[in-house]
Amino acid sequence: MSSRANKTQEILLPASGIFIFFTLLAGLTLNLLPWQGLSLLIRPDFIVLILLFWCINQPRKIGLGTAWFLGLVMDVADGSLFGQHALAYTLVTFAALILHRRVLMFPLLQQALHIFPILLLLQLTLLLFRLIVGVPYVEWSYFLPSLAGMLLWPPLSFLLQQPQRWTNKPDNSVPVQSSR
């Protein structure tokens, strides 16, 4: 048998809808902060990262409608062409829903390598809209948020899974949700 088959996989509690809502709200808040300088240049789309996490880990609780709505919210918040974020978020969510079983087979570092092309799809879709409306020049640094998102994937995944982890009570063997 392979070493992967010998590893025990952790069973996580299902995420509550309220927790998912507040994580998406936190992502929206992070997107709307007044970033400046280098941090603005490399800032990933936090809503997309959190949306990808939930699409991969809880695909029955989040889907294309949520992605479309959040994209429209970002279009209004950014003052950009109405529908560009909505379409990009929906494409990224669709890719995540298709690949969610495959991505879950890998450890977090290898999951990040699967997330990178999905984040590039987001950037390319938004770039296409920019070219259509007449922005003629795009620097190579335009794609840095995809790289930053890939690097943030492991800590973000670890952080968002913490409320779902099981722990054992010392007095009996009934698992309870961790309080971290």
TrEMBL record:
Main localization, broad class: membrane
Organism name: Sulfurirhabdus autotrophica
Topology within the bilayer: Multi-pass membrane protein
InterPro entries to which the protein is assigned, alphabetical: Cell_shape_determining_MreD, MreD_proteobac
UniProt keyword annotations, A-Z: Cell membrane, Cell shape, Membrane, Transmembrane, Transmembrane helix
Compartment(s): Cell membrane
GO biological process: regulation of cell shape
GO cellular component: plasma membrane
Signal sequence extent: none
Pfam family, one: MreD
Protein name: Rod shape-determining protein MreD
TM helices/strands, residue ranges: 12-33, 79-100, 112-134, 140-160
Keyword Nucleus attributed: no
Membrane keyword on record: yes
Family: Belongs to the MreD family.
